[in-house]
Amino acid sequence: MEQTRTLVYQFRFINTISEIKKSDWNAYFENTHPFTRHEYLSALELSHCVSVKAGWQPQHLVISQDDTFIALMPMYIKTHSWGEYVFDWAWAEAYERNQLDYYPKLVSSIPFTPTTGQRIGFASSLSEAEKQCVIAQASQFIRQQLVERNWSSWHGLFSPQSQHEQWGNTDVIQRLGCQFHWRNHDYGDFNDFLASMTSRKRKNIIKERSQIQQAQLQFTFVDGDKASPEQWQGFVQCYQRTYLKRSGHQGYLSADFFALIARTMGESIRLLLIENSDNQLVASALYFVSDSHLYGRYWGALNEFDGLHFEACYYQGIEYAIANQLSVFDAGAQGEHKVARGFYPVATYSSHIIKHQGFSDAIADFCQQEQQHIKLYMQQMTEQLPYKASDQ
């Protein structure tokens, strides 16, 4: 009788993505998602937006078989929970009340970027069964490392549903979240999109946009690799000023980071410049594109105008997605208010391994109860969509 061969993989951590060739990393992540690209993650490290000092220490996981890479995972040692967007503050507080250390913890995510994408990249030669085997052994390895290195937990954030299900087969804790994304139903233009809505919702959007039209502002999308240094500086100024006003700091990302991605992956970036009638910059927004998706990431304003945020961050993005036949517009985290503007509730997924058994049981129970609330919430949000019944 033929025996089934047990696949054995080797695991090691690297503390900088520069140890992996750009071509290798991007091939494993299929280069279809801007935020898992080597250029994006490298820019975070080179600009020191992620670092030991920043509380995001690179600890990427390399998985090999016979000295050949077969899988890669972006990973970080975290000493806080900022910039993750899957909120575990209550878990950290519970640890503190019990005089236990929640930090440091291990996180597989894209820093400051709450968008769904591969959190483990595989060699193209692997079968689905082999991928599941890799994930099963990766789960075992991570559990061992939590004990050996005194990390409290591991968190895999914003995985696609397919990878989420693979992690689920390894007995991790699974958590459900919700975002709001716009879908392109082959609209010919923005008016075609509006025509799919009920009369009252359509009128609300028209009224909202008319405020900006009266201000006589000019909106221009510029490819990131074609934008001038002055245009990039203008965006950074807008970004930093708005963050400072809202949060008391100038944002997670630095001017050096934006300069790096402009140079290394500018073709995947769209810079929205908003100018007044005197051609002076008043606001700006930063978008990323893939073959199918538009991602709205950051924005800022130097001057206040009624309705400018919705125009810059939602309506201009919808128009761009329609004009360029992109199927999904992901405008970022949060935003129940997006529903009235045509954004659908969509599920997001995360996986968690908690070393402390008592807390693991409690968190698993919490996530199971939370999941029921999220599903009900998504159903309620779907019922509030502004579309005519025939267009939903």
UniProtKB/TrEMBL annotation:
<dbReference type="InterPro" id="IPR007434">
    <property type="entry name" value="FemAB-like"/>
</dbReference>
<protein>
    <recommendedName>
        <fullName>N-acetyltransferase</fullName>
    </recommendedName>
</protein>
<dbReference type="InterPro" id="IPR016181">
    <property type="entry name" value="Acyl_CoA_acyltransferase"/>
</dbReference>
<dbReference type="Pfam" id="PF04339">
    <property type="entry name" value="FemAB_like"/>
</dbReference>
